[in-house]
Amino acid sequence: MQPFLDRPLERLRKVGVRVGDVVVGGGAPVVVQSMTNTDTADVDGTVAQVAALHRAGSEMVRITVDRDESAAAVPHIRDRLARLGVNVPLIGDFHYIGHKLLADHPDCAAALAKYRINPGNVGFKDKRDKQFAEIIELAIRHDKPVRIGVNWGSLDQDLLTRLMDENQKAGSPLTAVEVMREAIVQSALISAELAEEIGLPRDRIILSAKVSQVQDLIAVYVELAKRSDHALHLGLTEAGMGTKGVVASSAAMGILLQQGIGDTIRISLTPEPGGDRTREVQVAQELLQTMGFRQFVPIVAACPGCGRTTSTVFQELAATIQDDLRRNMPVWREKYPGVEELKVAVMGCIVNGPGESKHADIGISLPGTGETPAAPVFIDGEKAMTLRGPAIADDFQKLLADYIERRFGAGRQAAE
């Protein structure tokens, strides 16, 4: 019998790449990345969104640099963020004319912490290698790392055509999908090899290979991980909106992360109209946290509810506590070191409530239908008290705040 896996497989050791103050690969924790959807030329709007993404927990933020106005705005965005105390690495996303924008705007080239280029549209025909080389040379000059990001929607058609022709001459041993996957992998590897030949060190290169189907992403990255020791950025492109995007991204990246593949991730969600862009950061954090790779916020265990829990008190309390914990984390990371390890339980009846609460650092078992209107509270595995009356939820929140202060804050320091 095969042993059970009680933890994720050990991460595949990839070359470490420093992006500003963040290390990607080299055994460092998996890094959470996000991307703005503002017009980068809008300095106020972009600064506000970058700051919001960083407060939510994004450790690197990518911004679009698509024209002169955007490139000219980048140094101002960096400076404004610094004045706000937001020291998050900014990544410039370049397509088509990246070589020209970086050359014409040296302050932009210097302000960015990393460049992201797509070998499928960095240039076309005889200009492709020349313009690719110009970007790499600029990265070397400014001592910046580069993410070579292949995307199946803009795959090098010359490479794909050549591989299709070779497959046909060989009697078509591969399907069209398999050839497409191979073209994606080869595009990344060939581009990385060319960058190194030009002079960009391996520890300044990150690779990515974006597709929009779960099985394609898994197959491409497994192969890429076998054939390269470059740091890898994971992401399912065009993942979609709402639960579809969350489930697809989590399914694909969860499998890869479990195999030790991936050094930085982004959850590419299509936001609802007027929706919160930071949702993609929250999902990325929750994926890494639930898989045991990182700890970002305290865990709130809450029962799903059943016929025993006709009261909505436990649902409202669990939602309130979870929202409060996430909202307060930017401050609590500094004020309460280690608070992200906290485990809270909010349960709805006597069946599993006491047991789950005992396993948490602090937990409450609310009365279910027909049960005595009392709520035992467990702290550090022991029953500490029983709450009664209409203010049970408020009373428990106060107990939680006191517990956090005592264990992680000034109370702990005084005790020491």
Automatic annotation (TrEMBL):
Domain IspG TIM-barrel: 17-285
Residues that hold [4Fe-4S] cluster according to the record: 303, 306, 349, 356
Cofactor: [4Fe-4S] cluster
GO terms for MF: 4 iron, 4 sulfur cluster binding; 4-hydroxy-3-methylbut-2-en-1-yl diphosphate synthase activity (ferredoxin); 4-hydroxy-3-methylbut-2-enyl-diphosphate synthase activity (flavodoxin); iron ion binding
InterPro entries, A to Z: Dihydropteroate_synth-like_sf (IPR011005), IspG_bac (IPR016425), IspG_bac-typ (IPR004588), IspG_C (IPR058579), IspG_TIM (IPR058578), NO2/SO3_Rdtase_4Fe4S_sf (IPR045854)
Organism superkingdom: Bacteria
Domain IspG C-terminal per the UniProt entry, residue ranges: 300-400
Metabolic or biological pathway, per its Swiss-Prot or TrEMBL entry: Isoprenoid biosynthesis; isopentenyl diphosphate biosynthesis via DXP pathway; isopentenyl diphosphate from 1-deoxy-D-xylulose 5-phosphate: step 5/6
Keywords from the UniProt entry: 4Fe-4S, Iron, Iron-sulfur, Isoprene biosynthesis, Metal-binding, Oxidoreductase
Pfam families, per database record: GcpE, GcpE_C
Database matches in NCBIfam families: ispG_gcpE (TIGR00612), PRK00366.1 (NF001540)
HAMAP family: IspG (MF_00159)
Membership in a protein family: Belongs to the IspG family.
Function: Converts 2C-methyl-D-erythritol 2,4-cyclodiphosphate (ME-2,4cPP) into 1-hydroxy-2-methyl-2-(E)-butenyl 4-diphosphate.
The protein's name: 4-hydroxy-3-methylbut-2-en-1-yl diphosphate synthase (flavodoxin)
